[in-house]
């Protein structure tokens, strides 16, 4: 089935919350940071999701993932946990790269090897490792791999 990528619309909000909350729990568990979970309804405000360009992926007319990016940064990428490994994340990354600059950057929580493998397929590499407070949940310290895509 074809993956359709379209701009986010307000009626998508609850579906994005479902996708984010399940996938974020998966991401944090892989990094042994389950205690850091913040639900989408709060995280989307604290982490300024809508300051980015937000696009959704649809498959079989159902929203199955989303990406949020600026021209030089991918800030959010989440895929329905029951639909992973179907090319949805790849389609969203390819879309962002086609609409951004040739030198995009992103951060991946250490331990999220699934995400790192996805980004490496597109030529991203780990350029540095940073530790600090988690955006949206400053009580948590975490380490991220900063990944860049060179021109």
- What sort of overall outline do the alpha carbons produce when their principal axes are compared? globular
Let me know the largest β-sheet. 4 strands, antiparallel
Q: Compute the number of helices.
A: 4
Low-confidence stretches: none
Gyration radius over CA: 14 Å
Structural class: alpha+beta
* H/E topology pattern: EHHEEEHEHEE
Percent helix, as a range, is 25-40%
Mean pLDDT: 93
| First-last Cα distance | 32 Å
Strand elements, count: 7
Strand % is: 35-45%
The main sheet orders its strands as 1-2-3-4
Q: Would you give an account of this structure?
A:
The chain is α+β, with helices and mostly antiparallel strands. The chain is 30% helix and 38% strand. The protein contains 4 helices and 7 strands, in the order E-H-H-E-E-E-H-E-H-E-E. The chain has a 4-stranded antiparallel sheet. A hairpin with a 2-residue loop joins strand 3 and strand 4. 27% of the residues are buried.
Question: What labels describe this entry?
Answer:
151 residues; alpha+beta; 3-stranded antiparallel β-sheet; 38% strand
In brief:
With 151 residues, the protein is an alpha+beta fold.
Summarize the SSE layout with pairings.
Layout: E1 3-7, H1 13-30, H2 40-46, E2 53-59, E3 62-70, E4 73-79, H3 88-99, E5 105-109, H4 113-121, E6 124-134, E7 137-149
Antiparallel strand pairs: 1-2, 2-3, 3-4, 5-7, 6-7
